[in-house]
């Protein structure tokens, strides 16, 4: 199974943490050899599509994602975002949750199921381990 979960307690309000973890360009900038290639205009909402491109030079892989769930934190309730990966090679989903922990603290939970189409299921544990490291570093970076 390729699913993994990351949790971070941060000294940020839920609104601040939400803004950082839903900054798609900020995430892409913290993943090696990756950049935000395009994003639907306007504020993020269900139906927003963005594409990150990972690679070197002309050789790379596009990872299109669609926002299928979007509930920013409000009135003490947690925020939730669900992304569905729509690519030919990179498949799966991600769920981002931001739970308020008082006025100045939050718990950020990132759960991801990452599948790479050309790899056999036998390598799922390796994909999950690498994903946990790469996404963990990106998450730490956007929350600093």
What features would you describe in this structure?
With 144 residues, the chain is an alpha+beta fold. The chain has helices at residues 14-21, 24-29, 124-143, and strands at 3-10, 34-39, 49-56, 59-71, 79-86, 90-100, 106-116. It has a seven-stranded antiparallel β-sheet. A hairpin with a 2-residue loop joins strand 3 and strand 4. The protein is globular, with a radius of gyration of 15 Å. The model has no long low-confidence stretch (mean pLDDT 93).
Largest sheet: 7 strands, antiparallel
The total of beta strands comes to 7
User: Which class do the helix and strand fractions yield?
Assistant: alpha+beta
Helix amount: 10-25%
- Helices and strands, in order, run as EHHEEEEEEH
SS element count, helices: 3
Query: Which residues sit in consecutive blocks of at least 5 with pLDDT less than 50?
Result: none
Spatially, the strands of the biggest sheet line up as: 1-7-6-5-4-3-2
Q: What is this structure, in a nutshell?
A:
The protein is α+β, with helices and mostly antiparallel strands. The protein is built from three helices and seven strands; from the N terminus they run βααββββββα.
